[in-house]
């Protein structure tokens, strides 16, 4: 009988401790929500009722769920093993404090770097600890958290019986459960209909994996292959672009012609394959170590026109923000036009080209025919212009290894790089396409006056594969090292060997042609092309996958912090840790215009 009473008392004690633990976890869920509000400031506040509604139920469901998981893993087992209230309260307060410390530290890292806490992020932040913890509040706050946790633990223990009598537990569980399930159902709908006001919060909270329409359909046996696998990262914050008002006064207004050729490798501009461009390069300013900003049209053209790192292109603000370059050109009375093959809807819908009048060309037999029509359209358009003009010409035949029907190009040669048999075929077909483009450039530039500023570059490079996805995901020098040639009126030819990139094109045109006196840091990630800079790295790619080209190595990273380091030839993977100081600079530059 006595033994049975002891067992009953033990069960009652454990039951009371379990009830206390549930309410303690719920309270910590509320504390986590308060700390988690810092994420919203980093991402940007919702702009609609539906955005606020989703954020509210998602926050309640997510942080309460996290708090309960922590309780279930760390505290509940101790409740069964050591059912002593004083020990459990102290231990639970310690675990809860550590969890909230980790969450607080994660908010700091996310606000500064845009990524959540991970071994990679922790290692990075540890080396930058002084810059991150620049306020005494990060010393006082942890102490305050411990005091609050101990106070609440004791407060709930003394009143757990009264709380249980009010029978609030089932109502709280039901409410939190509804919030959790509703947030996922709402996200499935938003994902299917591309409601970015909801989906832009996908990465805001740590350990957050909201259900998507794709996963929902796949789990229910529905083919989701037509669904987009990823949406643009549309995090919203206050954008300062430019940081200060532009001050621009030009002494003259020369015409400006920018020619961007898709898939133009720097090492393929030679006397045999591209004789005209090779000679033109010798006669003008040539940049021998130039890098594109991305390996696809959207990212590369963004870096060229805006002068900003490619990760900015994923931000919602740039869906409606025109480049400073085109803004100033329009203010100074330039006629802006772009000539390109008719391809996808990106050009028509991008704010990058809002100020530019579009001229698209079609080709019945492929992109080479479209390029011929593009060149003819440019030549005809120039004849009718009575005011200064800025023209952007995009040629695409090399991307498709295309030439016109019956085109007689250059002879087949042995590749200067090691290639597989199938790649050798692509290599020589690529040379034919470049030779065709070379002839089109001769036709175009023969009709351009010598007092026109002419800039010729590659949109991106080329790797010899017929798989477009493989080509665009390749961040090797073959795919990012492109030629850059600038013809300045009344200037001599010269050869520039220091490293340059697409980021420097907009600052160069703004300062040397349009008379802007602002420092390039007001509106660009790059520096002018005409003088060497002290930057030791070049960022290439977007926010999902990118490479950092440094002086002696190439670091390739993805959005989850996984990285690989290669030598400068991209042939050997190096067994070493990444350079944290330079990576920190890269990440801060990618958020700098949102931190003003």
SS elements, strand count: 15
What is the 3D shape? elongated
Q: What's the Cα radius of gyration?
A: 30 Å
As a percent range, the share of helical residues equals 40-55%
Question: How would you summarize what this structure contains?
Answer:
The protein is an alpha/beta fold.
Structure description:
Helix content is 47%, strand content 11%. The protein contains 19 helices and 15 strands. It has helices at residues 2-43, 49-81, 85-113, 119-126, 129-132, 137-165, 169-193, 196-199, 213-219, 275-283, 297-306, 324-331, 346-349, 367-383, 421-445, 468-473, 477-480, 505-512, 580-589, and strands at 256-261, 285-287, 290-291, 335-341, 357-361, 389-395, 453-458, 484-487, 494-496, 500-501, 538-541, 545-549, 554-558, 563-566, 573-574. The strands form three sheets. It has an eight-stranded mixed β-sheet with strand order 5-4-6-1-7-8-2-9, sandwiched between helices. Strand 11 (538-541) and strand 12 (545-549) form a beta hairpin. The longest helix has 42 residues, at 2-43. It starts with a helix and ends in a 7-residue tail after the last helix. The model is unreliable at 216-236 (pLDDT under 50).
Q: What keywords describe this structure?
A:
single chain; 596 residues; alpha/beta; 8-stranded mixed β-sheet; 5-stranded antiparallel β-sheet; 19 helices
SSE topology sketch:
Blueprint: H1 2-43, H2 49-81, H3 85-113, H4 119-126, H5 129-132, H6 137-165, H7 169-193, H8 196-199, H9 213-219, E1 256-261, H10 275-283, E2 285-287, E3 290-291, H11 297-306, H12 324-331, E4 335-341, H13 346-349, E5 357-361, H14 367-383, E6 389-395, H15 421-445, E7 453-458, H16 468-473, H17 477-480, E8 484-487, E9 494-496, E10 500-501, H18 505-512, E11 538-541, E12 545-549, E13 554-558, E14 563-566, E15 573-574, H19 580-589
Parallel strand pairs: 1-6, 1-7, 2-9, 3-10, 4-5, 4-6
Antiparallel strand pairs: 2-8, 7-8, 11-12, 12-13, 13-14, 14-15
Helix pairs in contact: 1-2, 1-3, 1-6, 2-3, 2-7, 3-6, 14-15
């Amino acid at each position: 009988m006595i033994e049975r009473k002891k067992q009953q008392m033990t069960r009652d004690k454990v039951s009371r401790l379990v009830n206390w633990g549930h309410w303690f976890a719920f309270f910590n869920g509320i504390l986590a929500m308060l700390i988690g509000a810092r994420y919203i400031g980093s991402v940007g506040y919702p702009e609609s009722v539906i955005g606020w509604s989703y954020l509210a139920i998602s926050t309640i469901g997510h942080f309460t769920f996290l708090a309960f998981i922590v309780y279930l893993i760390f505290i509940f087992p101790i409740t069964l093993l050591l059912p002593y209230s004083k020990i459990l309260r102290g231990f639970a307060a310690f675990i809860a404090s550590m969890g909230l410390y980790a969450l607080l530290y994660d908010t700091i890292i996310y606000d500064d770097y845009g990524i959540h806490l991970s071994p990679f992020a922790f290692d990075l932040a540890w080396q930058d600890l002084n810059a991150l913890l620049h306020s005494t509040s990060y010393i006082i706050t942890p102490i305050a958290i411990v005091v609050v946790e101990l106070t609440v633990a004791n407060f709930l223990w003394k009143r757990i019986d009264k709380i249980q009598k009010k029978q609030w537990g089932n109502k709280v569980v039901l409410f939190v459960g509804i919030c959790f399930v509703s947030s996922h159902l709402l996200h499935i709908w938003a994902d299917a209909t591309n409601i970015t006001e909801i989906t832009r919060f996908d990465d805001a909270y740590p350990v957050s994996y909201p259900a998507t329409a794709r996963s929902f359909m796949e789990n229910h046996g529905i083919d989701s292959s037509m669904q987009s696998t990823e949406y643009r990262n549309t995090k919203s914050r206050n954008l300062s672009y430019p940081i200060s008002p532009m001050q621009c006064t030009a002494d003259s207004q020369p015409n400006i012609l920018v020619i961007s050729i898709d898939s133009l490798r720097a090492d393929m501009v030679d006397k045999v394959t591209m004789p005209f461009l090779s000679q033109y390069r010798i006669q003008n300013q040539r940049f021998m170590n130039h890098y594109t900003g991305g390996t696809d049209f959207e990212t590369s053209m963004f870096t060229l026109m805006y002068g900003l790192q490619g990760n900015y292109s994923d931000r919602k603000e740039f869906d409606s923000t025109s480049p400073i370059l085109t803004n100033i050109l329009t203010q100074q009375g330039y006629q802006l036009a772009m000539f390109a093959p008719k391809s996808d809807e990106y050009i028509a819908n991008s704010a990058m080209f809002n100020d530019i009048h579009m001229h698209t060309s079609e080709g019945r037999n492929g992109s080479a025919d479209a390029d011929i029509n593009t060149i003819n359209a440019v030549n005809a358009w120039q004849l009718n212009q009575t005011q200064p003009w800025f023209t952007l010409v995009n040629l695409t035949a090399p991307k498709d290894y295309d030439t016109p029907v019956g085109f007689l190009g250059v002879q087949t040669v042995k590749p200067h790089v090691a290639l597989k048999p199938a790649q050798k075929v692509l290599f020589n077909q690529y040379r034919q396409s470049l030779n065709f483009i070379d002839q089109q450039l001769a036709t175009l530039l023969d009709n351009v006056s010598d007092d026109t500023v002419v800039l010729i570059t590659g949109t991106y490079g080329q790797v010899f594969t017929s798989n477009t996805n493989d080509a665009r995901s390749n961040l090797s020098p073959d795919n990012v090292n492109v030629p850059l040639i600038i013809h300045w009126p009344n200037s001599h030819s010269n050869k520039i060997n220091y490293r340059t990139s697409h980021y420097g094109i907009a600052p160069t045109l703004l300062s040397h042609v349009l008379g802007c006196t602002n420092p390039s840091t007001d509106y660009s990630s790059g520096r002018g092309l005409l003088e060497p800079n002290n930057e030791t790295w070049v960022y290439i790619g977007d926010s999902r996958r990118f490479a950092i080209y440094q002086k002696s190595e190439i670091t390739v990273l993805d959005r989850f912090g996984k990285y690989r380091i290669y030598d400068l030839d991209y042939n050997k993977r190096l067994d070493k840790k990444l350079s944290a100081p330079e990576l920190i600079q890269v990440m801060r530059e990618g958020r700098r215009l949102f931190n003003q």
